[in-house]
Protein backbone atom coordinates (compact mmCIF):
# COMPACT_ATOMS: atom_id res chain seq x y z
CA UNK A 1 0.00 0.00 0.00
CA UNK A 2 1.31 3.43 -0.89
CA UNK A 3 1.18 5.93 1.96
CA UNK A 4 0.86 9.62 1.19
CA UNK A 5 3.40 11.87 2.86
CA UNK A 6 1.83 14.31 5.33
CA UNK A 7 4.51 16.88 4.49
CA UNK A 8 3.82 16.81 0.73
CA UNK A 9 2.59 20.21 -0.38
CA UNK A 10 -0.86 20.32 -2.00
CA UNK A 11 -1.97 22.83 -4.61
CA UNK A 12 -1.71 26.35 -3.26
CA UNK A 13 1.59 25.80 -1.48
CA UNK A 14 0.31 24.90 2.01
CA UNK A 15 1.69 21.77 3.63
CA UNK A 16 0.58 19.59 6.49
CA UNK A 17 4.05 19.57 7.99
CA UNK A 18 3.54 23.19 9.01
CA UNK A 19 1.68 22.03 12.14
CA UNK A 20 4.23 20.70 14.61
CA UNK A 21 3.60 17.12 15.59
CA UNK A 22 0.76 16.53 13.14
CA UNK A 23 2.45 13.51 11.58
CA UNK A 24 2.90 11.86 14.97
CA UNK A 25 -0.66 12.73 15.93
CA UNK A 26 -1.95 11.14 12.72
CA UNK A 27 0.00 7.96 13.38
CA UNK A 28 -1.32 7.65 16.94
CA UNK A 29 -4.90 8.36 15.88
CA UNK A 30 -4.72 5.81 13.05
CA UNK A 31 -3.45 3.08 15.37
CA UNK A 32 -6.19 3.86 17.89
CA UNK A 33 -8.87 3.66 15.18
CA UNK A 34 -7.45 0.41 13.80
CA UNK A 35 -7.61 -1.19 17.25
CA UNK A 36 -11.18 -0.04 17.76
CA UNK A 37 -12.30 -1.24 14.32
CA UNK A 38 -10.57 -4.59 14.89
CA UNK A 39 -12.56 -4.97 18.12
CA UNK A 40 -15.86 -4.27 16.34
CA UNK A 41 -16.26 -0.52 16.86
CA UNK A 42 -18.22 1.87 14.63
CA UNK A 43 -17.00 5.28 13.48
CA UNK A 44 -19.38 8.23 13.95
CA UNK A 45 -18.63 11.22 11.70
CA UNK A 46 -19.68 14.77 12.57
CA UNK A 47 -19.15 18.20 11.03
CA UNK A 48 -22.01 20.53 11.97
CA UNK A 49 -20.79 23.49 9.91
CA UNK A 50 -19.63 21.51 6.88
CA UNK A 51 -21.56 18.29 6.44
CA UNK A 52 -19.59 17.56 3.27
CA UNK A 53 -16.62 16.60 5.43
CA UNK A 54 -18.66 14.28 7.65
CA UNK A 55 -20.05 12.46 4.60
CA UNK A 56 -16.61 12.34 2.97
CA UNK A 57 -15.01 10.77 6.06
CA UNK A 58 -17.74 8.12 6.23
CA UNK A 59 -17.43 7.32 2.52
CA UNK A 60 -13.66 6.84 2.85
CA UNK A 61 -14.09 4.16 5.50
CA UNK A 62 -17.22 2.46 4.16
CA UNK A 63 -16.19 2.35 0.47
CA UNK A 64 -12.45 1.65 0.26
CA UNK A 65 -10.86 2.57 -3.06
CA UNK A 66 -7.80 0.34 -2.72
CA UNK A 67 -8.21 -3.28 -3.79
CA UNK A 68 -8.09 -5.69 -0.88
CA UNK A 69 -8.85 -3.19 1.88
CA UNK A 70 -11.85 -3.87 4.08
CA UNK A 71 -15.01 -1.83 4.32
CA UNK A 72 -15.33 -0.38 7.82
CA UNK A 73 -18.53 0.70 9.61
CA UNK A 74 -18.97 4.49 9.58
CA UNK A 75 -22.10 6.57 10.14
CA UNK A 76 -22.82 10.28 9.62
CA UNK A 77 -24.64 12.24 12.32
CA UNK A 78 -27.21 14.30 10.33
CA UNK A 79 -26.85 18.06 10.07
CA UNK A 80 -29.25 19.96 12.30
CA UNK A 81 -29.49 17.17 14.84
CA UNK A 82 -28.76 17.73 18.51
CA UNK A 83 -25.21 16.39 18.31
CA UNK A 84 -24.74 15.38 21.94
CA UNK A 85 -28.21 13.84 22.21
CA UNK A 86 -27.78 11.93 18.94
CA UNK A 87 -24.42 10.49 19.92
CA UNK A 88 -25.55 9.72 23.46
CA UNK A 89 -28.38 7.61 22.08
CA UNK A 90 -26.32 5.69 19.52
CA UNK A 91 -22.65 5.29 20.44
CA UNK A 92 -21.48 2.22 22.31
CA UNK A 93 -18.32 1.60 24.33
CA UNK A 94 -15.61 0.81 21.81
CA UNK A 95 -16.93 3.17 19.13
CA UNK A 96 -15.13 6.19 17.68
CA UNK A 97 -16.17 9.79 16.98
CA UNK A 98 -14.37 11.89 14.36
CA UNK A 99 -15.27 15.57 14.14
CA UNK A 100 -14.21 18.11 11.53
CA UNK A 101 -14.91 21.46 13.14
CA UNK A 102 -13.43 24.61 14.61
CA UNK A 103 -12.53 24.92 18.25
CA UNK A 104 -15.36 27.43 18.80
CA UNK A 105 -18.09 24.91 17.91
CA UNK A 106 -19.50 24.34 21.38
CA UNK A 107 -21.62 21.28 20.55
CA UNK A 108 -18.57 19.49 19.16
CA UNK A 109 -16.59 20.34 22.29
CA UNK A 110 -19.44 18.97 24.44
CA UNK A 111 -19.50 15.73 22.46
CA UNK A 112 -15.72 15.32 22.57
CA UNK A 113 -15.48 15.78 26.35
CA UNK A 114 -18.00 13.00 26.89
CA UNK A 115 -15.82 10.44 25.13
CA UNK A 116 -14.37 8.94 28.34
CA UNK A 117 -17.84 8.50 29.87
CA UNK A 118 -19.24 6.95 26.69
CA UNK A 119 -16.21 4.72 26.15
CA UNK A 120 -15.45 6.27 22.74
CA UNK A 121 -12.18 7.25 21.08
CA UNK A 122 -12.41 10.87 19.92
CA UNK A 123 -10.59 12.53 17.01
CA UNK A 124 -10.95 16.28 16.37
CA UNK A 125 -9.76 17.70 13.04
CA UNK A 126 -9.66 21.46 12.69
CA UNK A 127 -7.72 24.66 12.02
CA UNK A 128 -7.09 28.06 13.55
CA UNK A 129 -7.17 28.57 17.34
CA UNK A 130 -6.70 25.18 19.01
CA UNK A 131 -9.15 23.63 21.47
CA UNK A 132 -8.07 23.27 25.08
CA UNK A 133 -5.58 20.58 26.01
CA UNK A 134 -7.31 17.24 26.45
CA UNK A 135 -10.37 18.34 24.47
CA UNK A 136 -10.21 15.04 22.54
CA UNK A 137 -8.12 11.89 22.55
CA UNK A 138 -6.50 12.98 19.28
CA UNK A 139 -6.36 16.56 18.03
CA UNK A 140 -5.26 16.85 14.38
CA UNK A 141 -4.84 20.57 13.97
CA UNK A 142 -3.64 23.04 11.32
CA UNK A 143 -2.20 26.42 12.22
CA UNK A 144 -4.06 28.15 9.40
CA UNK A 145 -6.51 31.04 9.25
CA UNK A 146 -7.66 30.64 5.63
CA UNK A 147 -10.84 28.49 5.74
CA UNK A 148 -10.62 27.49 2.07
CA UNK A 149 -7.05 26.23 2.35
CA UNK A 150 -7.87 24.53 5.64
CA UNK A 151 -10.89 22.76 4.13
CA UNK A 152 -8.72 21.40 1.32
CA UNK A 153 -6.18 20.11 3.80
CA UNK A 154 -8.85 18.49 5.97
CA UNK A 155 -9.57 16.19 3.03
CA UNK A 156 -5.91 15.22 2.91
CA UNK A 157 -5.81 14.63 6.68
CA UNK A 158 -8.73 12.22 6.76
CA UNK A 159 -7.53 10.47 3.61
CA UNK A 160 -4.29 9.85 5.47
CA UNK A 161 -6.20 8.79 8.57
CA UNK A 162 -8.07 6.18 6.51
CA UNK A 163 -4.98 4.92 4.72
CA UNK A 164 -2.78 4.72 7.80
CA UNK A 165 -5.55 2.84 9.61
CA UNK A 166 -5.34 0.18 6.90
CA UNK A 167 -1.55 0.16 7.18
CA UNK A 168 -2.03 -0.80 10.83
CA UNK A 169 -4.29 -3.68 9.76
CA UNK A 170 -1.35 -5.12 7.83
CA UNK A 171 0.56 -5.49 11.12
CA UNK A 172 -1.75 -7.58 13.25
CA UNK A 173 0.55 -7.43 16.25
CA UNK A 174 -0.25 -3.72 16.55
CA UNK A 175 -3.96 -4.40 16.91
CA UNK A 176 -3.69 -5.94 20.37
CA UNK A 177 -4.60 -3.34 23.00
CA UNK A 178 -1.92 -2.23 25.42
CA UNK A 179 -2.03 -4.27 28.62
CA UNK A 180 -0.61 -3.57 32.04
CA UNK A 181 1.64 -6.16 33.67
CA UNK A 182 1.68 -4.48 37.08
CA UNK A 183 -0.16 -6.15 39.99
CA UNK A 184 -1.81 -2.83 40.85
CA UNK A 185 -2.07 -0.25 38.08
CA UNK A 186 -3.35 3.27 38.76
CA UNK A 187 -4.43 3.64 35.15
CA UNK A 188 -6.43 0.40 35.15
CA UNK A 189 -7.81 0.71 38.67
CA UNK A 190 -10.79 2.70 39.88
CA UNK A 191 -8.67 5.76 40.68
CA UNK A 192 -11.07 8.17 39.01
CA UNK A 193 -13.39 7.47 36.09
CA UNK A 194 -15.35 9.99 34.07
CA UNK A 195 -19.10 9.38 34.19
CA UNK A 196 -22.13 11.12 32.71
CA UNK A 197 -25.13 11.56 34.99
CA UNK A 198 -28.32 9.97 33.66
CA UNK A 199 -30.63 10.69 36.59
CA UNK A 200 -30.49 11.69 40.27
CA UNK A 201 -32.92 10.86 43.08
CA UNK A 202 -33.80 12.90 46.18
CA UNK A 203 -31.40 10.90 48.37
CA UNK A 204 -28.30 11.76 46.36
CA UNK A 205 -28.01 8.50 44.47
CA UNK A 206 -27.38 8.88 40.74
CA UNK A 207 -27.53 6.58 37.77
CA UNK A 208 -24.48 7.30 35.62
CA UNK A 209 -23.03 6.10 32.33
CA UNK A 210 -19.38 5.09 32.16
CA UNK A 211 -17.17 3.31 29.65
CA UNK A 212 -17.98 0.07 31.50
CA UNK A 213 -21.76 0.59 31.40
CA UNK A 214 -24.41 2.07 33.67
CA UNK A 215 -24.11 2.00 37.44
CA UNK A 216 -25.48 3.68 40.55
CA UNK A 217 -23.23 5.99 42.56
CA UNK A 218 -23.47 8.23 45.62
CA UNK A 219 -23.24 11.98 44.95
CA UNK A 220 -23.47 13.40 48.48
CA UNK A 221 -19.81 14.48 48.44
CA UNK A 222 -20.42 17.05 45.69
CA UNK A 223 -23.03 19.66 44.87
CA UNK A 224 -26.17 18.02 43.49
CA UNK A 225 -25.48 17.17 39.82
CA UNK A 226 -27.96 17.40 36.98
CA UNK A 227 -28.63 14.91 34.17
CA UNK A 228 -25.96 15.36 31.53
CA UNK A 229 -23.29 16.56 33.96
CA UNK A 230 -19.90 14.88 33.95
CA UNK A 231 -18.50 13.73 37.29
CA UNK A 232 -15.39 11.91 38.47
CA UNK A 233 -16.19 8.59 40.15
CA UNK A 234 -14.10 6.63 42.63
CA UNK A 235 -15.18 3.58 44.64
CA UNK A 236 -18.86 4.10 43.91
CA UNK A 237 -18.96 7.81 44.81
CA UNK A 238 -18.75 11.02 42.83
CA UNK A 239 -15.66 12.79 44.16
CA UNK A 240 -15.69 15.84 41.86
CA UNK A 241 -17.87 17.59 39.33
CA UNK A 242 -16.31 18.28 35.94
CA UNK A 243 -18.79 21.08 35.34
CA UNK A 244 -17.42 23.56 37.89
CA UNK A 245 -16.11 26.70 36.25
CA UNK A 246 -17.73 25.92 32.90
Walk me through this protein's architecture.
The N and C termini lie far apart (45 Å). The protein has helices at 22-38, 51-62, 83-90, 106-113, 115-118, 147-169, and strands at residues 43-46, 74-76, 96-100, 121-127, 138-142, 193-200, 205-210, 213-218, 230-234, 237-241. The chain has a five-stranded parallel beta sheet, with helices on one face. Strands 8-7-6-9-10 form a five-stranded antiparallel beta sheet. The chain has two domains: 16-175, Glucose-6-phosphate isomerase like protein, domain 1 (Rossmann fold, 3-Layer(aba) Sandwich); 193-241, SH3 type barrels, CATH 2.30.30. Mean pLDDT is 88; it is low at 1-14. 37% of the residues are buried. Helices cover 29% and strands 22% of the residues. The longest helix is centred in the middle third of the chain and has 23 residues, at 147-169. The chain has 246 residues and is α/β, with parallel strands linked by helices. It has six helices and ten strands; from the N terminus they run H-E-H-E-H-E-H-H-E-E-H-E-E-E-E-E.
Quick summary of this structure?
The protein has helices spanning 22-38, 51-62, 83-90, 106-113, 115-118, 147-169; strands at residues 43-46, 74-76, 96-100, 121-127, 138-142, 193-200, 205-210, 213-218, 230-234, 237-241.
Amino acid sequence: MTVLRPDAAPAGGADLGASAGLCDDLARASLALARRFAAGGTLWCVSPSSTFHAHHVAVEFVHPVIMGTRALPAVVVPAGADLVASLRATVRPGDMVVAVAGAAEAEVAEAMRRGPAWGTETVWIGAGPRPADGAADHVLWLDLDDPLVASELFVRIYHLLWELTHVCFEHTGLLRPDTCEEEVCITCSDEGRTAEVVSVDDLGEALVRTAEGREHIDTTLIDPPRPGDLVLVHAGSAIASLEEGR
